[in-house]
Amino acid sequence: MPQADIDWLRDLYDRYGAGDVAAIFNHLAPDVEWVSDRRSPALSSFSGTFRGPAEVRRYFEGLGRDWRIDRHETTAMIADGDEVVVRNLVQATNLATGKQVEVPTQHRLRLRGDKITRFEEHFDEATVEAACHAECR
């Protein structure tokens, strides 16, 4: 299987890291499947399987209601045919508690040309969930 050209994907991650979420929608396939399955109810605003660009927009709206992404730095991007694994370091603040969390994430993407057909997000859920709860006094 030929190696995917992922220069556009590197640029897309750089733009997202700079706060440009809208750029992602130019690279979603009409049949995209965006998976962010979380077990914790505290993370439900951006959890689930989202099909199509309109549902992916719901993912980002839910994420933005609960979290401010303070830093999103790509640390590795490894292509294998039409699949790419992207490792990131994310620093975010929970808007309800004001708690900040830093967590490595891994994204697995399937590409068709310069379009994302599938996205899977993985991170340590317990670390992120801890920032969702207020401290006991």
How would you describe this protein?
It is a single chain. The protein has helices at about 5-15, 55-65, 125-130, and strands at about 30-35, 50, 65-80, 85-95, 100-110, 115-125. The chain is of the alpha+beta class. It is globular and about 45 Å long. The chain has a six-stranded mixed sheet with strand order 2-1-6-5-4-3. The protein has one domain (about 5-130): Nuclear Transport Factor 2, Chain: A, CATH 3.10.450.
Concise overview:
23% of the residues lie in helices and 45% in strands.
| Helix coverage percent | 10-25%
Number of continuous helical runs: 3
CATH architecture: Roll
Number of strands: 6
List keywords for this structure.
137 residues, alpha+beta, Nuclear Transport Factor 2, Chain: A, six-stranded mixed β-sheet, 3 helices
What is the topology?
Elements: H1 7-17, E1 28-36, E2 48-51, H2 53-66, E3 67-80, E4 83-94, E5 100-112, E6 115-123, H3 125-130
Parallel strand pairs: 1-6
Antiparallel strand pairs: 1-2, 3-4, 4-5, 5-6
